[in-house]
Amino acid sequence: MRRIRVVFVLLLTSCGAQGDTRDDLSSADTLRAGNVAVDGEVSNDGLATESGLAPGSQGLTLPASPGASAGADPSARRVPAPDDGGPRTDLPPNELGRFPVVEYHLIGEREARWTRTPENFRKDLELLYSRGYRPVSLRDVAAKNINLPAGTSPVVFTFDDASPGQFSYIEDDGELRIDPNSAVGIWLKFAAEHEGWENKAVFCMLSGAEAGRAFFGNKGIDGQKTEWRHRKVKFLAEQGFELCNHTLWHATLSNYDSDDFVQEQIARLQLAVDSAVPGYRIRSFALPLGEWPKNRELARRGAWTDPQTGKTTAYEHDIVLLVAGGPARSPHDPEYDGMHVRRVQVFGDELTKTLDRLDRERTRYVSDGDPNVVARPAN
Ligand SMILES: [Zn+2]
Question: 346 CA to middle of ligand 1, Å?
Answer without folding.
Answer: 14
